[in-house]
Design brief:
- The complex is a heterodimer of chains A (about 350) and B (about 230).
- Chain A folds into 2 domains: about 130 residues, Up-down Bundle (Glutathione S-transferase Yfyf (Class Pi), Chain A, domain 2), CATH 1.20.1050.140; about 200 residues, Rossmann fold (3-Layer(aba) Sandwich), CATH 3.40.50.11810.
- Chain A contains 17 helices and 8 strands.
- Chain A has a 4-stranded parallel beta sheet with strand order 2-1-3-4. A 4-stranded parallel beta sheet of chain A has the order 6-5-7-8, with helices on both faces.
- The longest helix of chain A has 18 residues.
- By secondary structure, chain B is mostly helical.
- Chain B has 14 helices and no strands.
- Chain B is globular.
- The two termini of chain B are about 35 Å apart.
- The chains are: A alpha/beta (about 350), B mainly alpha (about 230).
Chain lengths: ~350, ~230
């Protein structure tokens, strides 16, 4: 299909994304592996875009990883999610924004199930009442946090300090977008652009100056596979999936990878290290790896946030090649500093200017 | 078999095999989701029981790519989830190497959910259990509290924020939910049948993860699972 044709297909898959007043729920995986990303998301929403975002201190895991690793039964997962909705209701919010893609998929699945099987919703309400005494309203709007950044991609571009452009050549950076499977594969109409041509990250890349790479295994799973990674004996499956993607994208010479799922960037980052250890093979240019980013990290870099405040020092595959191409200054000495210093003051300056 | 996912995920499969063509697990394992749906659709209890005791139901990665492509709107991945639930509740999961791994999932992710309020927590992602995380992770893990807080987190702190301590009252609510909805019973069944299997295999199985049975199920691979 020609690019124009794809754009036409994308344009047919739009979803409603609330404009303000968000109830934000954190991701277990993102908090552990990319804490700087959740900090950046809230900073962008509150301080750059002046939006109201609320986090309830008593929200928990949605139990989604346990559900998809099959130790948590469906009724239990539904009732844990119902409790999350009760937190939202009690706080007076209606627009639910999860940080995690597994969570987003689970919320979508549950709301769809309740829609088609009202008796299941009634049963879960009774379970929640019995266990906690709580009641809940269903969200009026459910959007993944990447949907929200997509919605405000133009506002972020208007404030950009850096673009996804190679400062030495003036050429757009070549960017691979990797969409978490549970974003739209189960319910294509719930994702921006659907499942075949998701536009949620492609829209950010284009708006911020980059060029989206199309490649054969673009929609292939990163290989998390829940139990396929959680148990050490199964991790061959996980690395094989990522390797298939790297081999497929390599001929297109990507400068970077952007992801919207919290787990995918960790796997695409770490498996590059492992493949290099096993086979001495690297997939980036100049005998380097391909740097892998969360969309919050990329938004933060575009807005001029310090790379070490964004947490890029937690990646195994070095991100510096992309920073150099974009012309972002950074202090290598501060990379592994555990003290808030230069970086944070830079952010404060940016916010107050 | 009563599971909402059988209703959601299975309407008159015509055996076209598109699910198998798109399936990442079918590329890697000796696995064919089309066959599984076919067996379930026959309603043959003997065949289904054999399936519940087999390795094959544990190969799916639940990416749900099958759901996107099925021309009938079926979701073999949801059927697999229902089968796995049944296999655990009936105790059949211990009859396969891959099935036995469910104790490892229960004792890591499962217990983290009800004891900490997280599916995973930095404290448990140790370099020993996760060598693939690489040398940088050793630095991250060693300095986890300082690093998370340097990035703006609230490591094991009160109130909101990244990796905050989930309040005891909240954990009590989670445990009550698990009790009321059958979650704790699932955990107990996994423990019960795993202990019986450990005795049969003459492997030591104590609490936690530092015992012969856990290490065996976490690391063992008999080499029969993957395509050559």
């Amino acid at each position: 299909m020609k690019l124009e044709g794809k754009k036409a297909v994308w344009s047919e898959y739009q979803k409603e994304i609330a404009d303000d007043n968000y109830f934000y729920v954190r991701s277990c995986i993102r908090q552990n592996f990319f804490p700087g990303s959740e900090v950046a998301f809230l900073k962008i929403m509150k301080e750059e875009l002046k939006k109201d975002v609320y986090e309830h201190p008593c929200h928990t895991t949605c139990s989604g990883i346990g559900y998809h690793a099959d130790v948590v039964p469906v009724d239990t997962a539904m009732t844990v999610v119902a409790r999350q909705f009760a937190m939202m209701t009690e706080a007076g919010y209606k627009n639910y924004v999860p940080s995690c893609i597994t969570s987003f998929g689970l919320y979508t699945e549950i709301l769809e199930t309740w829609h088609h099987f009202p008796e299941v919703e009634a049963k879960v309400r009774e379970y929640l009442r019995k266990a906690t005494g709580r009641e809940f309203e269903k969200p009026q709007n459910l959007a993944h946090a990447s949907d929200v950044i997509f919605k405000f991609r133009k506002e972020i571009a208007a404030k950009a300090k850096f673009k996804l452009i190679n400062k030495n050549t003036g050429a757009p950076l070549k960017v691979v977008d990797h969409i978490g499977c549970h974003y739209a594969k189960m319910f294509p109409s719930k994702g921006v652009g659907g499942a075949e041509y998701p536009y949620v990250l492609a829209g950010m890349i284009e708006e911020w100056g980059g060029e989206v790479i199309d490649y054969p295994e673009r929609r292939h799973c990163c290989g998390f596979g829940f139990r396929q990674y959680l148990v050490q004996a199964n991790r061959g499956f996980s690395i094989a999936c990522s390797k298939e993607k790297f081999e497929s994208m390599k001929p297109f010479k990507p400068d970077m990878i952007i992801t919207n799922c919290p787990g995918c960037p960790m796997f695409l980052d770490r498996w590059q290290y492992v493949i290099n250890e096993m086979e001495g093979k690297k997939y980036g240019q100049n005998n380097e790896g391909i740097p892998v980013f969360t969309y919050e990290e990329v938004a933060g870099l575009v807005l001029g946030y310090d790379p070490w405040d964004l947490g890029l020092q937690m990646h195994q595959t070095d991100c510096e090649p992309v920073l150099d191409k974009m012309g972002i200054e950074y202090d290598p000495e501060m990379k592994h500093s555990l003290k808030s210093g230069l970086g944070n003051s830079r952010i404060k300056n940016l916010i107050t200017i | 078999m009563q599971d909402i996912r059988f209703e959601e995920g299975l309407n008159a499969c015509m055996n076209c095999g598109v699910c198998t063509a798109i399936c990442p697990a079918a590329e890697f394992y000796n696995y064919d989701p089309r066959q599984i749906v076919d067996i379930v659709q026959t309603g043959d209890n003997n065949e289904i029981e054999a399936l519940l005791k087999s390795e094959v139901i544990w190969y799916c990665g639940e990416c749900m790519s099958c759901k996107t492509r099925c021309p009938r709107g079926n979701a073999p991945g949801l059927v697999i989830m229902a089968l796995r639930g049944l296999s655990q509740d009936l105790g059949f999961f211990v009859e396969s190497e891959k099935g036995r791994q469910q104790l490892a999932v229960k004792r890591t992710v499962g217990e983290a959910i009800i004891n900490r309020g997280y599916c995973v927590h930095l404290d448990m992602i140790t370099p020993e259990l996760h060598p693939e995380q690489g040398p940088n992770w050793e630095w991250v893990h060693e300095n986890r509290a300082e690093l998370v807080n340097r990035l703006g987190g609230n490591f094991n702190g009160d109130g909101p924020g990244i990796l905050r301590k989930i309040p005891e009252e909240t954990l009590d609510e989670l445990k009550k939910i698990f009790e009321v909805t059958g979650g704790l019973r699932r955990y107990e069944r996994i423990e019960y049948f795993s202990k019986k299997k450990a005795e049969e295999l003459d492997l030591d199985l104590d609490e936690g993860i530092d015992n012969e049975y856990f290490i065996s199920i976490y690391k063992s691979d008999n080499g029969s699972h993957t395509k050559q």
